Amino acid sequence: MSLYVSKSAGLLLSGATALALSATAGLADIRFWTTEEQPERLAKQQEMAAEFEKASGIAVEVIPVSETDLGTRATAAYAAGDLPDVIYHTLQYALPWYEAGILDADAATDVIEELGTDTFAPGALGMAATEDGWASVPVDGWTQMIVYRKDLFDEAGLEAPTTFANVIAAIEALHNPPEMFGFVAATKVDENFMSQVLEHVFLANGATPVGPDGFTGFDEAKTTEVLDFYKAIAEASPPGELYWDQSRTLYFAGQAAMIIWSPFILDELAGLRDSAPPTITDDPTSAELASKTGIVTNFAGPSNPDGAAWGDIRYFGITADADTDEAMEFVKYSMGDGYTATLSIAPEGKFPVRTGTADSPGEFIEAWSTLPVGVDRKAALGDLYAQDMIDEIVGGLDVAKRWGVEEGQLALASKMINSQAINRVVRQYIDGEIDASTAVAEMNDELAKVE
């Protein structure tokens, strides 16, 4: 899915050498579709494919595919009996492609079990779970975060913003506009950013519009709690149409106590990107703001004390047309000896979904924390942030969720989110145009029309 701001982000792996993309195209043992099609990312994948070929004797042809075209191309290739062997794909395709016969779940399940089920983040596995195993092998992911001024929280004796109640308490203590806004909530209804933030907040309170049979409608009690919370954070925000840009700008200026953002902010916080510098000090390259920042991934409302993290996971799908043994070897290499390289282009957005091996349980987390991040300058996340924060970043994948995944209704839930009906009604509520009961009824009425 699109992130809040276009930026140098993740990679993947595999592929053939640069020559294999031209001179030997079609002669490789297996074909691999990747949506990581930017030149730098492709080059990295080609390097890794060369290493894989040296280790295994199996050549891989990397075929870049635009993420927007992936669904239609896979459907057409399946109909023609010409699928590649392995596809790097987003969460939205895992279960639908399995049900359509595009993916070989038995092969994916064998890979996961050989690598060790316990070495994968449970949330990432759960999103691709079938009755007998898994549709695809989780590769990497990220979780949305509450980014907050830990220094100010500590000074005021506040608990971390892990719950609705803790956020409200922090707003009451720290909101002092225009010098300091308690929050910067997303309020621009035609921005996907607002849709993503709202799903995170609804998930936190266990509120969902779908069940196993499709649309169920939002529970009024849970949803009213969400609406009241969102109105409170909106009232602690500056006026205007707010989305990712204002959230980041105000936080970077030291004028916001809390925001919700993706992990692609982590290197910017540390002054590693000239186009988005922290302005809290006179030095745009300073890591001072990063040192004052904390994050929360698992967030809980009053009706869901266990909370949830909003997660975006990517997978390796082994297809029904694959040379299965070779494809499995490729995926096992990519998730084993080659896994650190898989994560290396954008560690701030490619959290390890495989934490380590049976013999070395934290190996991949430790390696990931040493990988350089940044655009104009580079530093390791482990050098910028404390170990407890690194643990929080990765730990969100253990409990990552999305509407409709557990119920087998991700496609329907995605259409509901993309309709922006929830955004429009929530905005009416926080603007005082309708009451909570009316808001719930209007959302349910609009979402019931989505097919």
Topology:
Elements: E1 30-34, H1 39-56, E2 60-64, H2 70-79, E3 86-90, H3 91-100, H4 105-115, H5 122-126, E4 137-143, E5 145-149, H6 150-156, H7 164-174, H8 192-204, E6 210-211, E7 214-215, H9 220-235, H10 244-252, E8 258-261, H11 266-269, H12 288-291, E9 293-296, E10 299-301, E11 304-318, H13 324-334, H14 339-343, E12 351-352, H15 363-369, E13 372-373, E14 379-380, H16 381-384, H17 387-395, E15 400-401, H18 410-418, H19 421-430, H20 436-447
Parallel strand pairs: 1-2, 1-3, 11-15
Antiparallel strand pairs: 3-11, 4-11, 4-12, 5-8, 5-9, 6-7, 10-11, 13-14
The biggest beta sheet reads: 8 strands, mixed
Name the structural class.
alpha+beta
What percentage of amino acids are in beta strands? 5-15%
Compute the gyration radius: what is it?
A: 22 Å
- Total beta strand runs: 15
What is the average per-residue confidence, as pLDDT, rounded to a whole number? 92
Net shape: globular
Helix content: 40-55%
Termini separation: 21 Å
Count of individual helical segments: 20
Extract low-pLDDT stretches: 1-26
Verbal overview:
With 451 residues, the protein is of the alpha+beta class. Helix content is 41%, strand content 14%. It is built from 20 helices and 15 strands. The chain has helices at 39-56, 70-79, 91-100, 105-115, 122-126, 150-156, 164-174, 192-204, 220-235, 244-252, 266-269, 288-291, 324-334, 339-343, 363-369, 381-384, 387-395, 410-418, 421-430, 436-447; strands at 30-34, 60-64, 86-90, 137-143, 145-149, 210-211, 214-215, 258-261, 293-296, 299-301, 304-318, 351-352, 372-373, 379-380, 400-401. The strands form four sheets. Strands 1, 2, 3, 4, 10, 11, 12 and 15 form an eight-stranded mixed β-sheet that branches. A three-stranded antiparallel β-sheet has the order 8-5-9. Strands 6-7 form a two-stranded antiparallel ribbon. Helix 4 (105-115) crosses helix 13 (324-334), helix 9 packs across helix 20 (436-447) and helix 19 runs antiparallel to helix 20. The longest helix is centred in the first third of the chain and has 18 residues, at 39-56. The protein is globular and about 65 Å long.
